[in-house]
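Lab notebook: predicted structure, single chain.

Context: the supervisor wants predicted structures on file for every construct in the current expression panel, including those that have not yet been purified. This is the next one on the list. No modifications to the sequence; it matches the entry in the shared construct table.
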Amino acid sequence: TASHSELCAVQHPNGENIPKLLDFLPLAKKLDIPLFLEIKSSMTGIERSLELAEKVWRIVDQCNVKEQIHYISFDQDVMRKVLLLEPAATASYLGWDGDLSPEQVSANGWHGIDYHIRAYRQNPQWIARSRELGLLTNVWTVNEAEDARDFLESGIDFITTDEPELLLGMRG
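Prediction complete. Output recorded below exactly as produced.
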């Protein structure tokens, strides 16, 4: 694994470095679109994960982009921490296999489900059920036109893709 300073030194082929959150958010604010911000869990333990959640929240607050940010995390404790720090925040549970149903996500006080394409394929009723519960839905990672078309027709709220041109070309 790379250290923080090693990651900051990495240059993309275009000569740009990996941006820090504090550098990126002011630029993103100009876009005035929802931004999904994943807070990763620390391998060193829950205390570090919760500390990271608080640091991320402080940066979002400092950059005055609270309304644009949609927090996501695989870690339920991180989600709880975000909502403790910012009760008005939008926070969705991030999962691979749909380990929590829309009802469970709603009962936890979160605002949506953010699941891998496989979870929605195994539970296609979850998009409609989430809508009934007032939850937002996001699917990842959708890179095929047929999958994108299916999810657009299903009424999914957001689609995460590695192929944005594909989805932009499908907009009606």
